[in-house]
Design goal:
Blueprint lengths: L2 H4 L11 H27 L3 H20 L4
Helix pairs in contact: 2-3
């Protein structure tokens, strides 16, 4: 969840509508979860949890891009 500051994007969130902020927060949480699960998969060899976490992360991306577009 710290990537907003490390990528210099934290100033953008207040400019976004609240639902977009919520999707963004969910996406960042999903990305953090995916990173943890992917690291665990390296140790355990169990890929299914990592693929499920990646699918959830992708759903968050699709939800935002489907709802908010520059025209």
């Amino acid at each position: 969840m710290s990537s907003l500051h490390s990528h210099g994007a934290s100033h953008m969130a207040p400019l976004m509508p609240k639902p977009m902020q919520d999707i963004g927060t969910a996406m960042h949480r999903s990305a953090s979860r995916f990173a943890r699960v992917a690291q665990e998969a390296q140790v355990t060899g169990e890929m299914r949890p990592a693929l499920n976490a990646l699918a959830e992360l992708t759903r968050q991306c699709v939800a935002c891009h489907a709802s908010y577009r520059l025209r």
